[in-house]
Amino acid sequence: MLSPLSLPSWLPSLPSLEWGSSLLDALLQGLIGACGVSVLSNLLKVYFFVGCANDPKRQLEKERLRAQWALLETVHLAGLALILTIVGARVAALVVLEFSLRAVSMLLSLDKGSRGPEKLQLYLLCQYSLGCGLTCGLSFLQEGAPHRTLNLLLGLGLASLLSAGARRLRRHVCQLYELHSSQHYCGVCLGLLAGARSLPRLLGRALAVTFMVGNLAAVALINRDFLTTSEAVRFWTPLTICYTLLVIYMQEEQRQHPGLQGQVQTVLVRLGGLFVLLLTVGRWLDLLGILISLLGELWCLVGVRTLLDLCQIQDFPPQRPSVSAPSRPSAPAQPQGTAPS
C-alpha cells in the first residue's frame, strides 16, 4: 500500500530531486537554528528588562528595551534563517569550534567575582554561534535518517512553539511586569520578581549542552572529508594554532574595547584570520561561507548595543525589592482589666 512516507522510494532517483531535498533540509535546519537564537534573545531581553524595571536609574534603558517592533523582529529572524541555510556545514562547524574555544578560555581566565557581567556578555555574543551549533547538530544527528525531512519538520514545529512562547513572554513582561509585580497579580511576573537572577544560570546550562553536542557534530563533519590521517593533521594543526592566537588576541582586545565597536572589530579580526587560513587548507565554498558568516555575526549584533552597555555595569541587576505580604488589620487592643480589690 502506497503511503506518503514511502513516496520518495517510488520516484526516480534524479539529481534534481536529491538537490531539492537537500535544499529543503538545509532550510529547515536554518529555521530551527534561527528559532533557537530567537529563544535565547527574548529570554535575555526579559532578564535585562526586569533588572532595569527594578532599578530607577535605568529607566532610559528600560524604554529602549520596550521599544521593539514586531516587524523588525520577524525580518531579523527570517534573515538569520537564510544565512544559516546557505552558510554550509563545514564553515558552521568551524564557527562553533572557534567560539567554544574562546568561551572556555574566557571562563577559565575570569575572576570569581566578575563572572556575572562577563557571562552575560558571552551569552549575547554567542547567538550566531548557537545557530551554527544547532544546524551542525541537526545535520550530524539526522544524517542518513530514513525520514529526515519529516523529523526536521517536527523539530521545526517544536522550535517554533518555543520561539513563540519566549516572544510572548517578552511582550507580556515589557508591557505588564511593573503593574503586575507591584499589585501581586500575575504568577509569571511574581516568579520573575523573585527568581529572575537564576535565569542566566539556566541559560548557561542549556547553552553548555547545546555546544557540547555541536562540538561533537562539528568534529565529525569536518573529519568526514579526510581520507587519511595525514590529511586531517595538515588541516587541524594550522587551524589549532590560528584559533589559539586568535583567542589570546581577542581576550586582550575585549578588555580594551568592551563596547559594540570593539565587538565588531573582534568579529572582523576573527573571521578575517579564518578566511586567510582557509585560503591554504580550505575550499572555495568555505571562503564564501566565511563571508556569509561575517554577515551573520554582524546581523546578530544588530540591536544588542543597549544590552552590551548593561553588561558593563558591575552591580547589574540591582537587588530585587522584597516581596512583602499584604498587611493585615491589627486586632483591637484589649482593655486592661482592673486588679481585684
From TrEMBL:
Keyword annotations for this protein? Membrane, Transmembrane, Transmembrane helix
Instruction: Spell out the residue ranges making up region: Disordered.
Output: 318-341
> What ranges does the record list as Low complexity composition bias?
321-341
Membrane-crossing segments per the record: 26-48, 69-87, 148-166, 202-221, 233-250, 262-281
Q: What name does the UniProt record give this protein?
A: Transmembrane protein 82
Q: Name the species this protein comes from.
A: Sus scrofa
